[in-house]
Write a structure and sequence with these properties.
Elements (H helix, E strand, L loop, with lengths): L1 E7 L12 E2 L4 E7 L3 E7 L5 E7 L8 E2 L2 E5 L6 E4 L5 E7 L10 E8 L12 E10 L15 E8 L4 E4 L2 E5 L2 E6 L2 E8 L6 E7 L4 E7 L4 E9 L4 E4 L2 E5 L2 E7 L1 E8 L6 E7 L4 E7 L5 H34 L1
Parallel strand pairs: 1-18, 3-11, 12-18, 19-25
Antiparallel strand pairs: 2-11, 4-9, 5-8, 5-10, 6-7, 10-11, 12-15, 13-14, 13-16, 16-17, 19-22, 20-21, 20-23, 23-24
Length: 324
């Protein structure tokens, strides 16, 4: 048996780091059984409250609250969860605590940064998770039956990402951890220059729980002003815009600005982009010297004079030899 949890990081984190992306939602998929309590957690950096609702078989198309299938999201009913000072939120969803009964099948949980139902998601930031609710089976164990250990198969994009399991450092991805007791584990992925995130992973007896983590690079911005305004700005050799302007979604770290404007001396300048910040950059261009053109013209005339002198001397010597 192989359980696969796909984790993708993009603002709200859901079952392990799904960041809010305006107008588009990344998602993960989890398989559970009717009657399970499913832990949901994540981060919302843009709002102090997240609004959860559910869609799926025989439910209103615009969704219902997670704790009451009769409370419609398009009538203003949501499951509201407050975030802490770090933007973190948690909610345990009881699949049978719904003031009604769900059918078996595939459901989608929507996590939104404002009270918008499914028909108004273009005005909000959100993420989703797909939950497959199956019918629980019947098992029997006898005294003395050994419990088979489980395994976690951990990989990431990019590779060489540090992995911490229940606060213990385990190594770098790709990483396989065997001999684990069945149960829930908290797995944290971290790499310099990328957003760190954690996800709960369920390890089952004799099975492999696979986690594929896609990390998002940390980004920041630059607010660029030049004197004079209207200068052409290039970042790392690519056209960025005409000053003044603000550019976002630059990867954190070092970059190179090149600024040019007619009648002014071009200027290059290194800048450092700081994650989750927009840094102001002011660049003053110096005017081109009015004597620069005259100096170049004088140099050309001097070279021309030297060439003429050499030609005249050569011609004089040639005629003098002939006269002898």
């Amino acid at each position: 048996m192989k359980t696969i949890d796909t984790v993708r990081l993009t603002g709200i984190i859901l079952i392990g780091c799904l960041f809010l992306a305006h107008g588009a939602a990344a998602s993960v998929s989890v398989q559970a059984y009717m009657g399970d309590v499913i832990p949901l957690q994540g981060y919302s950096y843009g709002s102090s409250t997240v609004y959860l609702f559910l869609t799926g078989p025989n439910l209103p198309v615009n969704g219902v609250a997670l704790n009451n299938i009769n409370a419609r999201a398009d009538e203003g009913h949501f499951t509201q969860v407050e975030t802490d000072s770090n933007g973190h939120w948690m909610y345990n969803w009881g699949t049978t605590s719904m003031a009604g009964r769900l059918d078996y099948g595939s459901y989608t949980i929507w996590v939104v940064d404002r009270p918008n139902d499914r028909s108004h998601l273009n005005e909000a930031d959100y993420s989703t998770i797909t939950i497959g609710l199956g019918q629980p089976g019947i098992t029997i164990t006898t005294p003395g039956t050994p419990v088979m250990p489980g395994t976690m198969d951990l990989s990431s994009i990019p590779n060489e990402t540090s992995v911490v399991v229940n606060n213990d450092y385990k190594g770098r991805t790709p990483l396989t951890l065997g001999g684990l007791e069945p149960g829930m584990y908290n797995v944290t992925f971290s790499r310099f220059g990328y957003y760190k995130f954690s996800t709960p992973v369920k390890v089952e007896s004799g099975s492999v729980s696979e986690v594929i983590a896609s990390l998002e690079q940390q980004t920041g911005g630059l607010a660029i002003n030049t004197s004079p305004a209207g200068a052409q700005v290039m970042i790392d050799g690519a056209d960025a815009g005409i000053s003044p302007f603000t550019i976002t979604n630059l990867t954190a770290g070092n970059h190179t600005l090149n600024v040019s404007s007619a009648g002014y001396t071009p200027q290059g300048q290194p800048v450092t982009v700081i994650a989750n910040q927009t840094r102001a950059v002011d660049i003053v261009l110096g005017p081109v010297s009015p004597f620069a053109g005259m100096w170049v013209a004088g140099l050309i005339l001097a070279l021309f004079a030297v060439v003429i002198a050499v030609l005249l001397i050569t011609l004089y010597r040639s005629r003098h030899r002939k006269s002898e």
